[in-house]
Amino acid sequence: MDKIRLGIIGLGNIxxxxxxxLLNRKINRCELVAVCDKFLTSPEKYQSLKIFTDxxxxxxxxxxxxxxxxxxxxxxxxxxxxxxxxxxxxxxxxPISSHKADAEKxxxxxxKFSKIIFAGMFQLRTEPRYLKIxxxxxxxxxxxxxRVNWINxxxxxxxxxxxxxxxxxxxxxxxxxxxxxxxxxxxDTLQWLCGMPKRVRGFCQLxxxxxxxxxxxxxxxxxxxxxxxxxFISSSGEAPGTNRxxxxxxxxxxxxxxxxLMFTRNAADMIEFSQTAKQGFVKPDxxxxxxxxxxxxxxxxxxxxxxxxxxxxxxxxxxxxEEGINSVELANVMGYSSLLGQTVELPMDGAAWEKKLNQxxxxxxxEKKVVKVATDDFVSSFRK
Length: 384
Ligand SMILES: NC(=O)c1ccc[n+]([C@@H]2O[C@H](COP(=O)([O-])OP(=O)(O)OC[C@H]3O[C@@H](n4cnc5c(N)ncnc54)[C@H](O)[C@@H]3O)[C@@H](O)[C@H]2O)c1
Known about the structure:
11 helices; alpha/beta; Rossmann fold; 2 domains; nine-stranded mixed β-sheet; 32% helix; Dihydrodipicolinate Reductase, domain 2; six-stranded parallel β-sheet; binds nicotinamide-adenine-dinucleotide; single chain
């Protein structure tokens, strides 16, 4: 095989976005040959392609080698499993599943088909600003990490956004709110750079700013095995909102804010300095430097090219699908801990959260009236 025949399942906001750069031949050795949506709008755009209304049919059609799954989250698991079982490679949109137990099912299904490529769409991993942070952590510039704070409240969404489709911001349709949807990318980045915490205490407000039943305002305490502590704060109702990512290590502090990355480097390890200093109010000398970077031009397309290269040449995946369970677990545990009113140790019990989620679904009283909105500004929602 020297070219991938690709299908997209789910042609909503993001599915259409993927289709556009694929139809414009931005991905080498890959041709978009089929699309699928239960309710396809503007089919004339896809006249040259095979059109399906059922994802499993597309997968079983023999027309595609690989799919991008861009449906609402719950279908990521079922369609992902169907792809693996039918020998079709899958690039699954974030989150890889709605909850941890489903993610485990998806990963277990993939394990049986080791030649099939399973990737997750975590495009922030292609962004030079995060790659620079990763290099600095791995290179030891920060020393040992002691604190990770991410105030991530610039995911502002209007009431019209939440009314725009029936699945959004419902326990049944999505399985969570701002954690599982908007800041899932940040949660993936957090664990990719700093590893998974060992315990989490979440405080989530459900429908604080919107007429929704899931969380739209979150404050979380995190603790890692080495004693590092942190907070993760998010909101989809706060304007102007903040996006400040701060990592403090024994050798210095990184701050990413307003698309600027600053590093304050300590002249000495702060703990060694404290233990050897003869005076009480001195501090290690520190020097601030700006770490320059350019933003990725089309991060989603980089992910798709990587997926294609992984299938054709075994290129290592930027985001192996299996790693997608971590961000799902973080989103789940923050909500679960809040509902329990307790700190939860990780790895969390995925079955216990699934049971709680099913209870929330059964008790849901929300009745959604869908009002379609213009989505011209969709692309502006990406860069966080
Ligand atoms: N990586 C990113 O930057 C990014 C951005 C936006 C959305 N997403 C993710 O993509 C997914 C879709 O989000 P969206 O905003 O495009 O949603 P959307 O509601 O705009 O689109 C979903 C589409 O899937 C279709 N659909 C539903 N069930 C289906 C099925 N079983 N088979 C085929 N089609 C089906 C719907 O008709 C709809 O057109 C979500 O999981 C979301 O988290 C990722």
